[in-house]
Amino acid sequence: MSKWEYTKVVQNNTGAQFWGPGKTTLMNLPEFVYTVLLKRPPFRLAANAAIKTLLPKTVTVGEAIVWINPNDPVVSGALAFRVFERDEISFFSSHFSRDMTLIDAGANVGLYTGIALSTKGFKERSWRLNRTVRVVTFCRRR
Known about the structure:
alpha+beta, three-stranded antiparallel β-sheet, elongated, 6 helices
């Protein structure tokens, strides 16, 4: 049997979700298309090029305005298409309060830092940590 025969679709209240080959969690349609259907290198390269051309300069998440990395089709693309860590963003937004200190380890584009900074009354006690020089350079330019 091919790996495609193991893929099944589950319908629930949030729409169709997919079990990908070897996956232990459900994925939504855009994630399924990108990670399963566009997995082969020629398709992935074409998809990444298309995503990069469609990326806006900023994305609004709640009240936060996040500058996205135009060279990152994965995280920035998922943010632009509103499929990046939706449950985690919802949890963070509802549980973060103005008297907390944020350490955003692996900050990438600073999504959670942006959400924290948009929290009314937050005193800007945050540190963004990312070991990638490319991302740090990108963040400094903004």
